[in-house]
Specification:
- The complex is a heterodimer of chains A (439) and B (377).
- Chain A has 439 residues and is mainly alpha-helical.
- A two-stranded antiparallel sheet of chain A has the order 1-2.
- In chain A, strand 1 and strand 2 form a beta hairpin.
- Chain A contains 17 helices and three strands.
- The termini of chain A are far apart.
- In chain A, helix 10 runs antiparallel to helix 15.
- Chain A is 65% helix and 2% strand.
- By secondary structure, chain B is α+β, with helices and mostly antiparallel strands.
- Chain B has one domain: Cytochrome-c3 Hydrogenase, chain B (Orthogonal Bundle).
- Helices cover 51% and strands 12% of the residues of chain B.
- In chain B, the strands form two sheets. Chain B has a three-stranded antiparallel β-sheet with strand order 1-2-3. A three-stranded antiparallel β-sheet of chain B has the order 5-6-7.
- In chain B, helix 6 packs antiparallel against helix 7 and helix 7 runs antiparallel to helix 12.
- The longest helix of chain B has 30 residues.
- The chains are: A mainly alpha (439), B alpha+beta (377).
- At the A-B interface, helix 7, helix 11, helix 15, helix 17 and strand 3 of A face helix 5, helix 6, helix 8, helix 9 and strand 4 of B.
């Protein structure tokens, strides 16, 4: 069925082989095509993510959203892009011109370059299957903060500077818990390659979300925080800092920051999908495609599965943004260092104990581990034990976190708030009743 | 010698000096053209100064050169969010000075419409306050309901925002035909909407952490500064002019006054939410007992209040809005002075914000519910 339109792929391959050597085709031409495809698709995905966000927010706010440009406003992102392109590129007089020029490009490049290692699907749907993929993602995405600092500094404006300071502190502190949260999943995957992590989940026929519920939550929260998205959008909190680090930017340079933000969101959702939601792996897909010899169909269906999962997480982003109020700066730091970091550390310890227990049980006769070739593949008993540890971890983390934080102001806010009283004042008596704090 | 110099340079570099940040007048969340000069240590506010007057139009001086009838539309432009309440204080002052006997039906309609205006004003406050704290969706929800009220205003007065609502001695015209059913429909739908807002905000951890314990002002301090309205009642001081000096038809209405306890931003939020519910109660009673009859008193062709002075105040949505009128017996007032609730409430900003962060200053400006049109006049 699906194969009909995928036949050309093989045809193109054989056509290329007629003109070039096999090595040129495999290592130069196809990668270029892949890079082109990924960059185009990501750019479109980013543009339409803005459209989706506007539509979804409109849906939440009882309005229509973009409706004028094209049917249902479908051409709105393109119109926006054109408008931003022809706008004046204004540079403040006191700005540090070169840094001001360069900063947006750093932001965009840092966000887009991560796409190189993201496994959108098996086989040809990944540009470079680097064996240190996770490290690469963490390293490159943290370059993005540099762009924000440079932009804030070079603008020579107080609001921009405050925004940049906030963002750098925020991104640095959330990267720590983000990096630590991943380790639990890596223990089960036994590899740093992103494709390898998906293969580990596929051969174990499970999503790591079940082994690592806490890890997934920490990763997602710190991912949202690292992307500076609401409720963590302090660097650009428009009600306090006007527009934060990009206050002085306009036109296309501003839209580059905007693209970088959305591209970074896509990256975090993609990595979260890979690590915890099984990436392109979905039950039964393999059996109905690859096992029957339809290789390209297998890749395409997997690709769709991956995009669907990442899209769901992206929806979560929008949902949070249009629902929650914004954190304050110190509360944000509290959340990062007092809640997420301890939780990530507990997660590592519990995951380690889980794996040691599984190995120990396996050694003492209870069959828990199937094989260790593609990650840690467990038998149903072993899966039960690992999931049990994950659930146990939920309670353990909740307990320890409350122990750490029970003194803090934000711990029992619901008890601190007061109830209002309704009084029926006597009419026509011009007297101020006594100040009523009864405690 | 040389070493000492280096040490002092390092000292000045390492010291975190104060940073002066100009918030406004073009800032998205100063609710107009308020300019707040913040002195910051990092992000902590150590000193704060308000600069007002960017919207000064000389209302009080203009009033000295207008006839009494002509002044009323200017009053709509004071607190343009609550034009109906502002208009009421002017016409009531003149009426009481002249001893006019306003018909009962006009009083009832005035009560209903000012309470609708109170809800509209509180809805706008809720939306912008939530927006300042980062919850964008509430703004659009609040505007959806405010729109219903503005539709009623448009049909009744012919304008949505600066509705020149009253005439001295009564109303320009009687309630329109569907007035009763429109208002009834609104008061039947609105309680669910309030519940909706409260579902999103009341138990929200982030909302709580942004509002509980922020901008605390005790009852004594509030009275000392002269706060009024929900900002005062949030601190637990039982003072409501609708109760203590009933005007219009409030003397015949049965309603409660919500009081806060801690005097923090969260309390003021709860007080305003409850005030909307109480306003609905008042409107319901008013519409149920709406008497028949004329809506205008017998007013002389030339309005000339007797020589003397008079002060009258009402409970506007933001607090006690008063009018002090000195008449020299001619067709124009000799002096008019507005007692502005927002201007006086704004004085609490410094006391509330020192020691908090920049983000809290925004929340506190929001919780004071200021309108610059009235502060600058």
């Amino acid at each position: 069925m699906l194969l009909a339109f995928l036949a050309p792929l093989n045809f193109v391959d054989s056509l290329l082989l007629k003109f070039f050597s096999e090595q040129t085709v495999n290592y130069v031409i196809w990668p270029f095509i892949q890079v082109g495809a990924v960059v185009t698709i990501t750019a479109l995905w980013v543009a339409y993510a803005t459209y989706l966000e506007r539509k979804i927010s409109a849906f939440m706010q009882a309005r229509l959203g973009p409706m004028r440009v094209g049917p249902w406003g479908l051409l709105q992102p393109i119109a926006d892009g054109l408008k931003l392109l022809v706008k004046e590129d204004f540079i403040p007089e006191s700005a540090d011109r070169w840094i001001f020029f360069i900063a947006p490009y750093i932001a965009v490049v840092a966000a887009f370059i991560v796409m190189a290692v993201v496994p959108f699907g098996p086989d040809w749907a990944v540009i470079a299957d680097v064996n240190i993929g996770v490290l690469f993602v963490l390293a490159v995405s943290s370059v993005g903060v540099l762009a924000l600092i440079l932009a804030g500094w070079s603008s020579n404006s107080k609001y921009a500077l405050l925004g940049a300071l906030r963002s750098s502190a925020q991104m640095v502190s959330y990267e720590v818990s983000m990096g630590l949260a991943i380790i639990g999943a890596l223990m089960f995957a036994r590899t740093l390659s992103l494709s390898g992590i998906v293969v580990a989940q596929q051969s174990d026929t499970i999503w790591f979300l079940l082994y690592q519920p806490i890890g997934f939550m920490i990763f997602l929260i710190s991912g949202i925080a690292e992307n500076n998205r609401a409720p963590f959008d302090l660097p650009e909190a428009e009600s306090e800092l006007v527009a934060g680090f990009h206050t002085e930017y306009s036109g296309f340079r501003w839209s580059l920051f905007f693209m970088a933000e959305y591209a970074a969101m896509v990256v975090v959702t993609a990595v979260a999908t890979t690590l915890y939601l099984g990436g392109w792996y979905f039950p039964f897909v393999y059996r109905f495609t690859e096992a029957k010899g339809h290789h390209n169909a297998y890749v395409v269906v997997s690709l769709i599965v991956f995009l669907a999962k990442a899209g769901l997480l992206l929806y979560l982003y929008f949902w949070l943004r249009w629902t929650l109020p914004r954190f304050r700066y110190d509360q944000l730091m509290d959340l990062g260092w007092k809640w997420l970091l301890p939780a990530a550390l507990i997660n590592i310890v519990v995951s380690a104990i889980a794996i040691v227990t599984l190995q120990g049980l396996n050694g003492s006769g209870i069959h828990t581990i199937k094989s260790m070739s593609n990650g840690l593949n467990l038998t149903p008993t072993g899966k039960g034990i690992a999931i049990g540890f994950g659930v146990l971890n939920l309670f353990l983390t909740a307990g320890i976190l409350s122990l750490i934080n029970w003194r803090s102001r934000d711990f029992n806010l619901k008890k601190q708030r007061s109830k209002i009283r309704l009084v029926d004042l006597p009419k026509g008596k011009p007297a101020v009743a006594p100040v009523a704090s009864e405690q | 010698m040389h070493q000492v110099e280096i040490a002092t340079t390092q000292q000045t570099l390492l010291d975190s000096p104060q940073m002066t940040l100009n918030m406004g007048p073009q800032h998205p969340s100063t609710h107009g053209v308020l300019r707040v000069i913040l002195k910051l240590d990092g992000e902590t506010v150590i000193d704060l100064d308000c600069d007002v007057g960017y919207l000064h139009r000389g209302m009080e001086k203009i009033a000295e050169n207008r006839m009494y009838n002509m002044i009323a539309p200017y009053w709509d432009r004071l607190d343009y969010i609550a034009a109906v309440s502002n208009g009421l204080v002017w016409v009531e002052t003149v009426e009481q000075m002249m001893g006019l006997d306003v018909p009962r039906r006009a009083h009832y309609l005035r009560t209903i419409l000012t309470e609708l205006n109170r809800i509209a004003s509180h809805l706008l406050w809720l939306g912008t306050h939530a927006l300042d704290i980062g919850a964008v969706t509430i703004l659009l929800w609040a505007f959806r309901e405010r729109e219903e009220i503005l539709k009623i205003f448009e049909r009744q007065f012919g304008a949505r925002l600066t509705c020149h609502a009253w005439r001295i001695g009564g109303m320009p015209n009687d309630a329109y035909d569907d007035f009763e059913s429109d208002v009834r429909q609104f008061i039947n739908n609105f309680p669910n909407r309030i519940d909706e807002y409260e579902t999103v905000l009341n138990e929200n951890r982030i909302w709580l952490s942004r509002t509980v314990g922020i901008g605390i002002i005790t009852g004594e301090e509030a009275v000392a500064i002269g706060l009024s309205g929900p900002s005062l009642r949030g601190s637990g001081v039982a003072w409501d002019i609708r109760k203590s000096r009933p005007y219009a038809a409030y003397g015949e209405m049965d309603f409660d006054v919500p009081l806060g306890e801690n005097g923090d931003t969260y309390d003021r939020y709860l007080v305003r939410m409850e005030e909307m519910r109480q306003a609905l109660r008042i409107i319901r009673q008013g519409i149920d007992n709406l008497p028949d009859g004329p809506v205008n008193a017998k007013v002389p062709k030339l309005i000339k209040p007797p020589i003397g002075d008079y002060y009258h105040s009402i409970e506007g949505p933001k607090g006690e809005i008063g009018c002090y009128l000195v008449s020299d017996g001619t067709q124009q007032p000799w002096r008019v002075r507005v007692r502005p609730p927002c201007f006086i409430n704004l004085q609490a900003l410094k006391q509330m914000s020192i020691g908090h962060l920049v983000a809290d200053v925004v929340a506190i400006i929001g919780t004071l519910d200021i309108v610059l049109g009235e502060i600058d006049r």
